[in-house]
Design goal:
Layout lengths: L6 E9 L3 H12 L8 E4 L11 E5 H9 L10 E4 L1 E6 L6 E4 L5 E5 H7 L8 E3 L3 E6 L4 E5 L4 E9 L6 H5 L5 E17 L5 E6 L3 E7 L4 E9 H6 L5 H13 L5 E4 L8 E9 L4 E2 L2 E3 L5 E2 L7 H21 L7 H30 L3 H16 L2 H10 L2
Parallel strand pairs: 1-2, 1-11, 2-8, 5-13, 11-19
Antiparallel strand pairs: 3-7, 4-7, 5-6, 9-10, 10-11, 12-15, 12-16, 12-17, 13-14, 14-15, 17-20, 18-19
Helix pairs in contact: 1-7, 7-8
């Protein structure tokens, strides 16, 4: 039967124009497995990314992106992190994780995205969103808002935390509100080591600090909603500067607001989404559509990168033996590959969140004793391994 003009067929279709979606498309193209007319990207982003947030990419994932997938990162586009310091209220001293090889790198999201080179000559791109989906034994069908019908062997859905495609496909997930708000922005600083990342646990909030230059840090501030709701006209920059300057006065490190053009904040509620089986027939979830965790460990985007790596492994293995890579056995294998680390990172970050959120003076004292003891034991090596991605 002749296909209609508004009906196209592909081997793989990626949904989502964010970092994970573009990374997945990049890896598919670089694999040289598919013909150009067999790859489809549904990308509804209308503007060039202006996401000024930063991401931490652990050493293992960064090495693989550079060496296995030949993605070119200019050395002036990222900072190497050799040390991670974990601070706590009334601490004796911070837990310090040093690694000469490097824990990973910090890179701004818009720069990272621009390093992923995708040409529309390499695949077919549609700018219209998916409004419905169905499947049969052989294909997954996507109906776009513009009336186009996509017939594809496999759909890889990277459409974010809210994931309309996940909802359309009736994939079950756990959704848990942490009752915290995430605020992310930039601060000027002095005497801050530009190769050190810091995690600070305060009584009502957690703050992650990632250096972006010798004088500027990106902060990711997780603030208890009860504290936030108590104040009218909450001045975020004044509040975080006051907290950090008070905490770091003993270290002779201080913070202040950046220039006006850098004052725009990212503010959003944080919740955990956990998908036990991130697939359906001829459909797999990758990135935030498959898992959403608290950002305190800096591992959220690393899990998304690893999703892309695991999916490529499954596609290559299926191709070698002539198996249809949309088959349920391939998707089950993808789920098995991602499950152990996703479960571990989700569990650890959630436990840490609640341990530090609920602390009183006694708990706080015990935490500091625990951190001091970890400093003296082989457990410190486990934290280093976790940070590097092994």
């Amino acid at each position: 039967m002749k296909k209609k003009d508004n009906e196209k067929q592909f081997d793989v279709t990626v949904i989502g124009g964010g970092l994970t979606g573009k990374l997945m498309v990049t890896l598919l193209i670089k694999s040289n497995i598919f013909k150009k007319n067999k790859l489809c990207w549904i990308n509804t982003e209308k503007k060039i990314s202006k996401d000024k947030r930063v991401s931490f990419i652990n050493f293992k994932n960064f090495f693989k992106l550079e060496n296995d997938y030949k993605i070119n990162f200019l050395t002036n586009h990222y900072l190497k992190i050799n040390k991670i310091q974990i601070h706590n209220t009334d601490e004796i001293k911070p837990l310090c994780l040093e690694d000469e090889v490097g824990h990973g790198v910090v890179i701004r999201n818009d720069i990272l995205k621009s390093s992923l080179i995708v040409s529309e000559d390499d695949l077919t791109v549609y700018k219209s969103k998916v409004i419905s989906t169905s499947y049969d034994e052989f294909l997954r069908y996507l109906i776009l808002e513009n009336g186009m019908k996509i017939n594809t062997s496999l759909v890889l859905s990277a459409d974010g935390n809210l994931s309309p495609v996940r909802n359309m496909s009736n994939i079950n997930f756990i959704d848990h509100d942490l009752d915290h708000t995430i605020i992310s922005g930039y601060l000027n600083t002095n005497n801050f080591d530009s190769n050190t990342a810091k995690q600070i646990f305060l009584k009502d909030s957690f703050i992650g600090l990632l250096p972006v230059s010798k004088t500027v840090v990106n902060f990711v501030w997780s603030l208890d909603n009860q504290t936030l709701n108590k104040k009218v006209n909450f001045e975020y920059y004044d509040e975080i500067s006051e907290r950090l300057n008070s905490f770091f006065s003993k270290y002779n490190v201080n913070f202040n607001q950046t220039e006006l053009q850098n004052k725009k904040l990212q503010i959003y509620p944080i919740n955990i989404k956990y998908v036990q089986n991130p697939f359906k027939k001829r459909l797999a979830l990758i990135g935030d559509s498959a898992h959403s965790i608290h950002p305190l460990a800096g591992q959220g985007f690393n899990l998304s990168i690893e999703d892309c790596f695991h999916m490529m492994d499954c596609i290559r293995n299926a191709t070698k033996i002539g198996k249809d890579f949309g088959e349920i056995s391939v998707l089950t294998e993808y789920s098995k590959l991602t499950r152990s680390r996703t479960n571990f990172i989700t569990f650890i970050t959630t436990i840490l969140f609640y341990v530090f959120k609920k602390k009183n003076n006694f708990v706080n004292k015990m935490i500091n004793v625990g951190l001091k003891n970890i400093e003296k034991t082989s457990l410190k090596g486990i934290f280093k391994i976790l940070a590097r991605g092994y």
